[in-house]
Design goal:
Layout lengths: L4 H13 L7 E5 L5 H9 L4 E6 L2 H10 L1 H5 L3 E5 L12 E7 L8 H11 E11 L8 H18 L1 E9 L6 E8 L3
Parallel strand pairs: 1-2, 1-4, 2-3, 4-5
Antiparallel strand pairs: 5-7, 6-7
Helix pairs in contact: 1-2, 5-6
Length: 181
């Protein structure tokens, strides 16, 4: 995952769409080996980043990749899930994921939890690229429509869809904002 150029490109594209500011606190759901998290950490001089993953292997790789940032107190990598109760409500300016939300049994509950974690005005970004056999743009757009509908249902506003042309199917990122209090 960490060495494939296509993964690096998807991760960097998503990080750029987040419009990160130096003071932001950022949460990545399913941080994998920490590629995107490392890019985020480079942008937050006063804030910080937290990556969560359910895989011990991925947490280990991400922890090694972000060792300097962890030592400096600007990063944390945790072996936890979104629903285990260890994430702080109303804390994060940005919450994002890459090819994660399609695995949730209840996508609405996942986005509801993300909504709780965000500060007022905070943003969520969910990037998706179909990984099935013979994926199509239609597959990507179908998932994007489902994500948009779910985001709206839990209260996100200003929903935007971004598309990165890729082979064999495009990468889609859906971004929503938690309303200001």
């Amino acid at each position: 995952m960490a060495t494939r150029p296509s993964n690096r490109k998807r991760n960097q594209w998503t990080v750029e769409l987040l419009a990160i500011q130096p003071v932001h606190r950022i949460l990545e759901i399913g941080c994998g080996p920490g590629i995107a998290l490392k890019s985020c950490a480079a942008k937050v001089s006063e804030g910080g980043v937290v990556g969560i993953d359910h895989s011990e292997v991925m947490v280990s790789q991400a922890s090694k990749r972000l060792a300097g940032e962890i030592k400096a107190g600007r990063a944390d990598v945790r072996l936890v899930g979104l629903f285990d109760g260890s994430l702080e409500d109303g804390t994060y300016d940005r919450v994002y994921s890459l090819n994660v939300f399609q695995f949730f049994l209840d996508m609405e509950e996942g986005f509801r939890r993300v909504h709780e974690c965000l500060v007022s005005g905070g943003k969520v970004a969910t990037t998706y690229q179909p990984r099935s056999k013979n994926p199509t743009r239609g597959n990507a757009l179908e998932m994007a429509a489902s994500i948009e509908k779910t985001m709206k249902a839990v209260g996100f506003v200003g929903i935007e869809r971004h598309e990165l042309l890729f082979k064999p199917a495009p990468v889609i990122c859906v971004i929503g904002r938690k309303t200001e209090a």
